[in-house]
Design a protein that fits this description.
Layout lengths: L1 E6 L2 E9 L3 E10 L5 H15 L4 E6 L3 H9 L3 E2 L2 H11 L17 E6 L3
Parallel strand pairs: 3-4
Antiparallel strand pairs: 1-2, 2-3, 4-6, 5-6
Length: 117
């Protein structure tokens, strides 16, 4: 499933799947960045999870400073401690370009947010 937002030169799309207990977000794309479009899309997903009485939203995130910073700002936490260790190295590294992707064993970092409902 996808949600799309288009408004005055702004575009956003979020690709996700729903199962019995959670929503998994596979991809989010916005243009231009840092205009609140991504936040609006995530809020729509979280509201959908609340309406469907789901337990959580799960995100297999790209291991980059830009992506991890966004999801942490949105209140998402790490599922595995080893992902948290890798993410902390990425977020605390001053030599990385924000969009640079760091190699991880699985290629992703899993984050989730509990949904109260």
């Amino acid at each position: 499933m996808k949600f799309k937002i288009t408004k005055r030169g702004m575009f956003g799309e979020i690709d996700f799947e729903i199962d019995e207990e959670s929503i998994s977000v596979f991809q989010i794309h916005v243009s231009p960045k840092r205009r609140g479009t991504g936040t609006k899309l995530v809020k729509k997903i979280e509201n959908l999870a609340i309406r469907k009485h789901l337990k959580s939203v799960v995100v297999p995130a790209t291991p980059s400073e830009e992506v991890l910073s966004f999801w942490i700002k949105m209140g998402y936490g790490f599922i595995f401690s080893e992902d948290k260790d890798v993410a902390n190295r990425i977020l605390n590294s001053s030599g990385l370009d924000m969009g640079q992707i760091v190699n991880t064993d699985s290629g992703i970092i899993l984050l989730s947010k509990k949904i109260a409902g």
